[in-house]
Amino acid sequence: MKRFLVAVLMLCTTATVHAADARNEITAENVIRLMNAERAAYGLAPLSADPRLVQAAGDRMRHMEDEGFWAHQSPDGVNPFTWLRVRAYDFERAGENLAAGFETVRLLVESWMESPGHRANILSPDFADCGIAIIDGSPTGPAAGKSVVVLFGKKRMSFASTAR
User: Fold this and answer.
1) Would you say 102 and 148 are in contact if contact means Cβ atoms under 8 Å apart?
2) What per-residue confidence (pLDDT) applies to 20?
3) Among 12, 47, 63, 95, which is 20 to 30 Å from 74 by CA?
4) What is the DSSP letter of 128?
5) Banded model confidence at residue 31, pLDDT cuts 50, 70, 90
6) pTM for the whole thing?
7) pLDDT computed for residue 11 by the predictor
8) Which residues does 156 contact at the CB level (< 8 Å), separation at least 6?
9) Torsion over CA of 92, 118, 113 and 65, rounded to 10 degrees?
10) pLDDT over threshold 50, residue 3
11) Strand partners for 48
């Protein structure tokens, strides 16, 4: 009986460790979860993943990989919001956070919260939607950790949606 109990305890401990690891892994769901925890601490509504912004973030990451750069403005003058237009996300407001070289979602979001511009995007009451793209390494070449693009947006209110 003791041997069985030890085995059950070891399985439970292992499962807990794997669950904790999964919650600290850099995934889109975990990034949104931690950004929303920060927003909740300030009484802000949560961000929701918007499929068009997810596609736009993927386009943005691929563009940086194809062109071999890592910056808010591309060397050929393409800004990050070009991809929102390509994906027909009609925005009133938009923002972008970039991060590279992180191994855990907690460190990633903590670093954004320590940066005034990144923090402002996460805590902006003007943003309701986001899209996230994540790759291993860097768009500029082999590197440790993950690279992350988050595009934030607020849809433009159309006349039809405001008329009663």
Assistant:
1) yes
2) 53
3) 47
4) -
5) very high
6) 0.84
7) 35
8) 90, 91, 92
9) 120
10) no
11) 129
Return the structure tokens found at 101. 């070289």
How many angstroms separate the CA atoms of 149 and 96, rounded? 7
Query: What gap in Å lies between CA 136 and CA 53, rounded to an integer?
Result: 20
Distances (CA, A) of 129 to 10, 23, 36, 89, 99: 41, 22, 11, 10, 19
- Left (φ > 0), alpha (ψ -120 to 50) or beta: where does 115 sit? beta
Instruction: Give how far Cα 92 sits from Cα of 25, 109, 126, 134, 162, Å.
Output: 32, 25, 9, 25, 15
Taking each helix axis from N to C terminus, what angle separates 2-24 and 105-114, rounded to the nearest 10 degrees? 40
Query: If you ran DSSP here, which 8-state letter would residue 25 be given?
Result: S
Which tens digits make up the pLDDT trace of 118-130?
Answer: 999 999 999 999 9
